[in-house]
Structures are given as structure tokens and as C-alpha cells.
Amino acid sequence: MEDLKVQLEELKKRLELLEENIDPVDEVMLSIKARLRRKLEGGKLPELDEEKAAKTLKALANPDRIRILKMLSERPMGFKEIKEALGVESPTVSHHLKLLTKTGMVRKGDGYEISPNGRLFLRLLEIITALEEVEE
């Protein structure tokens, strides 16, 4: 139990250091910080849901789906607009949007728009790719 308290204190210190280095206008990073704080109030992060994690990673495991998130981060778009921007067939676009919608990264209204979770995952991808080169 004492070891867990020490680990939590260390994690809180790391969060404080991150907080000092976060650009205050970066709302996504502020969102990450707030979400982590809420999760840590219970003493630890919740157990990893492997199925949910795999579905989320699957939704992000395609360059066209990442392109869709990037486009929608700039503004909401209609289906036809997304299809033309990607240059792929309608069934492919439907499949991509279905996965992104199912995982909560994209919302459908009059058109398609990125959700706060979609912005969060897009920002995390930017951070991950900035940290190091990924070898194929």
C-alpha cells in the first residue's frame, strides 16, 4: 500500500511538471490533464479494457482514417466532400466513418465532425509521431 502511495505521488509530480510545460492555449492537452486528474482521484487509473483499446487502435490504424480526423479537425464536412478529398470509393469512406463513429472519434449530424475524443486521439498521434520515428 505504501508503494502505491509513493507511485501516485511520483505520478502527481510528473503531471505537475507536464502542466508547467503545456502551452495554455492547447485545449486538448488541458483536456488530457483534467481527465487524468479525475481518474487519479480514485487512487489509480482504471484497469485497461483490452477490447476497447484494440477497437480504438484499429480505428486509428489506417492513414485515410487519420486523414479524415485531420480534415474534420479543421471543420465539419459532408460525406461527398470527404470522399472527394480522399479520392476513394463510397463503400471505403462509409467503412472508415463507421469505425470512427463507433469509437466515438467522429459524430454525425448534418455532416461529420470530430468529437473531443477524436481531437484527443489526433493530438496523441501527433505527440507519438513527434517523439520518434516509427520503423516499418
Helix content: 55-70%
Q: What percent strand?
A: under 5%
Largest sheet: 2 strands, antiparallel
Number of helices: 7
Shape: elongated
Instruction: Provide the residue-averaged pLDDT.
Output: 84
- Uncertain segments: none
Q: Rg to the nearest angstrom?
A: 18 Å
**N-C termini distance:** 42 Å
Structural class: mainly alpha
- Strand order, sheet with most strands: 1-2
Order of helices and strands: HHHHHHEEH
The number of strands is 2
Structural features:
single chain, 136 residues, mainly alpha, 7 helices, 2 strands, 4% strand, elongated
What is the secondary structure topology, with strand pairs?
Layout: H1 2-21, H2 27-41, H3 50-60, H4 63-74, H5 79-86, H6 90-102, E1 106-108, E2 112-114, H7 116-131
Helix pairs in contact: 2-7
Short description:
The chain has 136 residues and is mainly alpha-helical. The protein has helices spanning 2-21, 27-41, 50-60, 63-74, 79-86, 90-102, 116-131; strands at residues 106-108, 112-114.
Description:
- By secondary structure, the chain is mainly α.
- It is built from seven helices and two strands, in the order H-H-H-H-H-H-E-E-H.
- It has helices spanning 2-21, 27-41, 50-60, 63-74, 79-86, 90-102, 116-131; strands at residues 106-108, 112-114.
- A hairpin with a 3-residue loop joins strand 1 (106-108) and strand 2 (112-114).
- Helix 2 (27-41) crosses helix 7 (116-131).
- The longest helix is centred in the first third of the chain and has 20 residues, at 2-21.
- The radius of gyration is 18 Å and the shape is elongated.
- 13% of the residues are buried.
